[in-house]
Amino acid sequence: MKMLIGSAAAGLLFASVAFGAVSPQEAARLGQELTPLGGEKAGNADGTIPAWTGGLKSPADAGFPNYHNGEHYGDPFASDKPLFTITAANLSQYAAKLSEGQKALFKTYPDYKMIVYPTHRSGASPEHVYEATKRNATTAKLVADGNGFTGALGGAPFPIPKSGVEVYWNHVTRWRGLAAALEVGQAPMTAGGGYTLVKFKEEFYFQYYQPGMTEAALNNILLFFTQETTAPARLAGDELLVQETLDQAREGRRAWVYNPGQRRVLRAPNVAFDNPGTASDNLRTNDQFDMYNGSPQRYEWKLIGKKELYVPYNAYRLQDGKLKYSDLLKKNHMNQDFARYELHRVWVVDSTLKPGQSHIYSRRTLYVDEDSWQILVVDCYDTRGQLWRVQEGHAMNYYNLPSLWDALELVMDLTNGRYLAVGLQSEEHGSYDFDIKRTPADYLPSTLERRGIR
């Protein structure tokens, strides 16, 4: 009888982990002691992390009331002075609040440093996202093996997560507007500090957040994404279209490519998992774009808990229109004088490769911002279980939406002195255009061919 009772209790615990939805009483904590997205409103005990008071909800909140959509963003915290700088010499003093990958960067590159500034909890989202998140809390459920979810729209599906894969889906579905377009640069850095800049035009249409959307109308498509390569000349004209599915147990990602040499649109099943990312010189996998994306099916997910960590945050200088790529992109790692780190609470999630599955990473540890569900740091381990690469998402609040999202992503290889900079904005004509008008009809394979021919 004791064994049966124990088994039943364990089954109930597993069910809550597997299926996600929380009670109305738990959901009532959102907007009270928890932020509307599920973070802790209160600061920490010693005041080094302040309370969340709403974040930057508008350009006026940020001190730039005349900001116009598409411009580079002014820095609301430009007058802040550094608190201290972490170096290889004083690493032990701060090691408890660094990830294993971050600590490895100091040991690998003697000149590496992290300049730490006062913490500003600038993350914010619109009220309609908060309202939907609270509704989702009591209705969202994971599908088989956590490879998708149902019962949620328009906000974080699992604001009070009980499992690691729920945190992952919160990241994948975090608010980034209804649609957006951006011209960006990507730099695959050599060990000697050289690079050939790759340039893209990118668009996305976030169907999950469209007003009046229903789960049936989604047709299992979370978002649409296109990427056109515009430079260098040998790659110009290549096009990628992705239709990202919500329930990937039912149907995996749909992707197509257009090559101007062949003048044909081809299905691209390899745009997933550990196949090399576009023009990345094998420095990132497809599922490392946007820090971590796609199906979680190859990994076991474990929610470790929360931790205070020095993370890249409020990274407005990295998209400043005055910053030159040549000043930022240096040998072995970017010029850390332009990086800003702050102390924040993060969710810690381990994803470990399942037996019988294949991937170049046997394990990835994610550090996820409590105020936005943005992944800020990832430690990546090779098939021998050794630290291999470290990802950083240098985030900032795009305060005209508002949304906390990356200004720049880095994938740094600890074994060969190389790294990849993804999403460079400062030398482009501006930042995200969040006013573009699109429909799902703009993201069909036939439209991809027309884009390539024009």
Name the features:
alpha+beta; globular; outer membrane lipoprotein receptor (LolB), chain A; 10 helices; 17 strands; 28% strand; 13-stranded antiparallel sheet; 454 residues; single chain
Structure description:
With 454 residues, the chain is an alpha+beta fold. The protein has a single domain, classed as outer membrane lipoprotein receptor (LolB), chain A. It is 17% helix and 28% strand. It contains ten helices and 17 strands. The chain has a 13-stranded antiparallel beta sheet, with helices on both faces. A two-stranded antiparallel ribbon has the order 1-2. A hairpin with a 5-residue loop joins strand 13 and strand 14. It is globular. The N terminus is likely disordered.
Task: Outline the fold blueprint.
Elements: H1 2-19, H2 24-27, H3 59-62, E1 84-86, H4 91-94, H5 100-108, E2 114-116, H6 127-137, E3 141-142, E4 149-150, H7 164-172, E5 179-189, E6 198-205, H8 215-218, E7 221-231, E8 239-245, E9 254-259, E10 264-267, E11 299-312, H9 325-328, E12 341-353, E13 363-369, E14 375-381, E15 387-398, E16 403-413, E17 419-424, H10 445-453
Antiparallel strand pairs: 1-2, 3-4, 5-6, 5-17, 6-7, 7-8, 8-9, 9-10, 11-12, 12-13, 13-14, 14-15, 15-16, 16-17
